[in-house]
TrEMBL record:
<dbReference type="InterPro" id="IPR045857">
    <property type="entry name" value="O16G_dom_2"/>
</dbReference>
<dbReference type="InterPro" id="IPR006047">
    <property type="entry name" value="GH13_cat_dom"/>
</dbReference>
<feature type="domain" description="Glycosyl hydrolase family 13 catalytic">
    <location>
        <begin position="13"/>
        <end position="419"/>
    </location>
</feature>
<dbReference type="InterPro" id="IPR013780">
    <property type="entry name" value="Glyco_hydro_b"/>
</dbReference>
<dbReference type="Pfam" id="PF00128">
    <property type="entry name" value="Alpha-amylase"/>
</dbReference>
<protein>
    <submittedName>
        <fullName>Alpha-glucosidase</fullName>
    </submittedName>
</protein>
<comment type="similarity">
    <text>Belongs to the glycosyl hydrolase 13 family.</text>
</comment>
<dbReference type="InterPro" id="IPR017853">
    <property type="entry name" value="GH"/>
</dbReference>
Length: 565
């Protein structure tokens, strides 16, 4: 069994625009993250993934990079980035950067030169066509055509927004420039990368015509540009020339990777340390379809997707377990009926936390998740910033739905739901900023602040601290990090139960895994329903934690119990 620091880590994802504003301009920044490092350390976090803070016109909130070697002024300076990396490392927290190399901003120097001079070497850094007649009419990930015309009459390709032209990975010189840039950041002291949209880098550049699959007459871009044959050559070269040269971590966003390809991605010689599984976090939607067309799913289906991924990954590599991120709405509204939130919000947040946190793999906590934050309500599309949400709204209107129905779609699934300002205290703007924030604060959860949650021993925040303590600093640490996982069958479809089996290994990563260990198994039980359900635990069991004061033999609505036998 390979022992790695990132397997024993607890990751925390930060959306820098919304985390903490240190200079009072309404926008979170790098100094704000540095200032809050003590909070993260106290929580128990050992690694932080920060969404892009590179120089950017912010058409897609930093996922449209105009300069990989500079920091966007709203976030600070390169010196601020250096200070953050240094201070984090001094506090035992590693920094992981969000790396976007499928595309750049249309304001990037390379693209500007490519548009200015069709004979420039940078023309080959992107995908240009003089004529798109007969080529696939593809729908971008944000809606609309993937082809945009420039002044000289030619067309360029973009899998996402028109302001995000795709890089041409067939160009060796371009690839080498990316490798040099990534190594520059690694040399600065970052500990790895989260790789954005990485399975889009290989395209069928002939773009053969494809049948429509949507109301707009277009075909989903993934049919032509997602996990294409030949991508392994690019990914192998990427690893060999950058993060493969040291003890770095990579976690990749890899939509389109089938189960049979997992070994190539996260096996012993795989391209990445971990990849994110979308099967259970996207269980409520149909890929490429309108958000309004919500899928009907069952707890049994959810459980099957969760444990199928666990069974597959344990054979070949390591899992990256998560409930929320910057592209997902808050998990409580997704996995539980919205009407139950006021009464059971705290129990729901703790139940979901325990369900994902003790799975085998590395847990990723998204900012505000540890407070049990829920979705807000947007009244009109002008309140939103997210380019994807605006694209969905437009698609709904184009498909004949009313504005009210289109807004219902956006409220269900908008990425802005998770991008609202972090709630630090009860001051104006929840203590996020003294200035009006770039995105309005949540209007649905006044009581969910770090200040209030810290003072309440039964809060969601303190529950997360207890989970981190149990996983990383207890006699059960070896079991909860490296022990095998078995799903346990129950008579009730509304209950999810799994067992973490003990294992004896020698760990050297300083998490507490070297401490005295136990030969007892740990069971995690979660009632996913709003009903009382009978469930008996052995008389010899010790309850390690739960989301009610005590356990009396009946699982109450949304109750979770973690016990050892």
């Amino acid at each position: 069994m390979d022992r790695k620091w990132w397997k024993e880590a607890v990751f925390y994802q930060i959306y820098p625009r919304s985390f903490y504003d240190s200079n009072g301009d309404g926008i979170g920044d790098l100094k704000g993250i540095t200032e809050k490092l003590p909070y993260l350390k106290n929580l128990g976090v050992t690694a932080v993934w920060i969404c892009p803070f590179f120089k950017s016109p912010m058409k897609d909130n930093g996922y449209d990079i105009s300069d990989y070697y500079d920091v966007n002024p709203e976030f600070g300076t390169i010196e601020d980035a250096d200070e953050l990396i240094r201070c984090a490392n001094e506090n035992g927290i590693k920094i992981i950067m969000d790396m976007v190399i499928n595309h750049t901003s249309d304001q990037h120097r390379w693209f500007q030169e490519a548009c200015r001079d069709r004979h420039s070497k940078y023309r080959n850094y992107y995908i240009f066509k003089d004529n798109i007649d007969g080529l696939a009419d593809l729908r971008s990930n944000f809606g609309g055509s993937t082809w945009t015309q420039i002044e000289d009459g030619s067309w360029y390709f973009h899998s996402f927004a028109k302001e995000q032209p795709d890089l041409n990975w067939e160009c060796e010189e371009m690839r080498q420039e990316l490798y040099d840039m990534m190594n520059w950041w690694l040399d600065k002291g970052v500990s790895g990368f989260r790789m954005d949209a990485i399975t889009f880098i290989k395209k069928d550049l002939s773009f053969p015509p494809m049948p429509s699959d949507g109301e707009d007459g277009r075909c989903d871009v993934g049919k032509c540009c997602l996990n294409r044959p030949g991508i392994d050559e690019f990914l192998h070269e990427l690893k060999l020339n950058t993060y493969g040269r040291g003890d770095f971590v990579t976690v990749a966003e890899t939509p389109g990777v089938p189960n049979e390809d997992l070994d190539r991605y996260i096996g012993r010689d795989g391209h990445f340390s971990m990849i994110f599984d979308f099967s259970y976090t996207d269980i409520d939607i149909n890929p490429g379809d309108l958000w309004l067309h919500q899928r009907d799913w069952t707890i049994e289906e959810f459980k099957d997707k969760l444990f199928t991924n666990q069974r597959l990954v344990k054979k070949i590599g390591w899992a990256a377990n998560y409930l929320e991120n910057h592209d997902q709405p808050r998990s409580i509204g997704k996995y539980f009926p919205a009407g139950d939130i006021p009464e059971y919000r705290t129990q729901m947040a703790k139940a979901l936390g325990a369900l994902f946190f003790f799975l085998k793999g590395t847990p990723f906590v998204y900012q505000g998740q540890e407070l049990g934050m829920i979705n807000t309500h947007f009244d009109n599309i002008d309140e939103l910033d997210d380019i994807n949400s605006k694209g969905q709204f437009a698609r709904c209107i184009e498909a004949g739905y009313s504005e009210a129905e289109a807004m219902e779609s956006v409220n269900i699934r908008s990425r802005d739901q998770s991008r609202l300002p972090m709630q630090w205290n009860s001051d104006k703007n929840f203590g996020f900023s003294v200035h009006e924030p770039w995105l309005a604060c949540n209007n649905q959860c006044d009581l969910q602040t770090v200040e209030l949650e810290s003072a309440d021993k039964d809060s969601v925040l303190n529950f997360y601290k207890a989970m981190i303590q149990l996983r990383n600093h207890s006699e059960y640490t070896q079991t909860l990090i490296y022990g095998d996982l078995e799903d346990v069958e129950t008579d009730n479809a509304g209950i999810i139960v799994y067992r973490r089996k003990p294992v004896q290994i020698e760990c050297a990563c300083g998490t507490g895994a070297n401490a005295e260990s136990t030969d007892r198994s740990v069971y995690v039980v979660v009632n996913m329903t709003g009903e009382d359900v009978g469930y008996a635990i052995p008389e010899t069991a010790d309850v390690l934690m739960g989301n009610y004061v005590d356990y009396d033999g009946t699982l109450r609505p949304y109750e979770t119990v973690v016990y050892a036998v």
